[in-house]
Design a protein that fits this description.
About 40% of the residues lie in helices and about 15% in strands. The protein contains 15 helices and eleven strands. It binds beta-D-fucopyranose (FCB). The site of beta-D-fucopyranose has 12 residues, from loops.
Length: about 450
Amino acid sequence: MIPRRADFPKDFLFGAATSSYQIEGHSFGSAGRTHWDDFAATPGNVVRAENGAIACDHYHRWPEDFDLMQQAGFDVYRFSTSWARVMPEGRGAVNTEGLDFYDRLVDGMLARGLKPAATLYHWELPSALADMGGWRNRDIADWFADYTEVVMGRIGDRLRSAAPINEPWCVSWLSHFLGHHAPGIRDIRATARAMHHIGLAHGRSIAAMRGLGIGNLGAVCNMEYAAPADTSAAAAAAAQLYDGYYNRWFLSAMFKGEYPADVLEGLASHMPADWQDDMATIAAPVDWVGINYYTRKLIAPAPGPWPAHQEVAGPLPKTEMGWEIYPEGLEFFLRRTAQDYSGDLPIYVTENGMAGLDNLVGGAVNDAARIDYLSQHLAAVQKVAADGVPVKGYFTWSLLDNYEWALGYEKRFGLIHVDFETLQRTPKASYHALSRALTRSA
Ligand code: FCB
């Protein structure tokens, strides 16, 4: 049973989240090419080599999607703007069709009583910037600050909140060390540079928005609970290091102006020159922090070079992503983030959800597993909030089934089913359950 609105503190916000490339349809509106188009066109990177050219066609169908948001009773909508849609070459010329689109979106939210929560970068780097080294190139901080000014100069006056970058770990480690996401690099020097430049770009973007007089700015980091695979000291150390480069690196930089010593042991020799001089910029004060949380990982030591560890399969029930369901991890991160990093600042769960089988049968999708997942995680949030941790809102990932990156359209995370042939939307049982829980009592 999903906890009800009345079970949460007054003013707690409920929302749903999406991102530009995953839903809009990148072939529409004169958007520029992105490194996800290139990554997907390279054999072996993405299931069926699918890309975001059409996606959910949210570019044209957004009024229907926002009507469904409104009917569900959500307070706030987390969306992202696409750099390549607004600046097709990443720098210089602005595509006014792109800016007009985001202008319409924001007004469309406001017209339906939905508070806009914007993210400036959810992974679709313009290909022209990838050609110049993308996140490996320190100049990306300047390019990103310029792009920030262009977007926020247009829509910044009507937002409830804004964040520069979605999930720095995915942009850097997942994409430059593991190579699972665009640009698909597997190189420790590229990783260290991306892990640093992303913080610098974040700080510069925050400063650019402050300069425009925009308030309520935050950072959105993804976190995975790292548990040792067994009781050995070596497994404990492996899990701690995983926690370091995944969960602590970015928060530590943004809130303390320093990188965790245990992670620097492995990365220091790969960092760009004089990185220390950038830490004050990276630690620009923010007004809130967002946590994206899905799962935990069991970590064991492994032979080979740093970080010398591996993930092993865990025993808990899993989602269609193969991710263990572990709501205790969300509770842990909410408490630790407040205690060790953000203090009294508001914390938002900016993403949480699961991929399910979600078959459309007789015009309905009975996604009982998702209702259970949301119930467990919302109960964790409720418990932590009752203990006084300043968690102020929760966003489900995602409003719609969408382009799940390297997994193409195969993994369904939505509260609303999308038929990717007809693009027809069908609210799932979880949408209806959440909607009942959010109804305000008279
Ligand atoms: C997060 C991403 C989001 C989606 C979910 C499942 O890491 O921010 O775009 O892919 O995972």
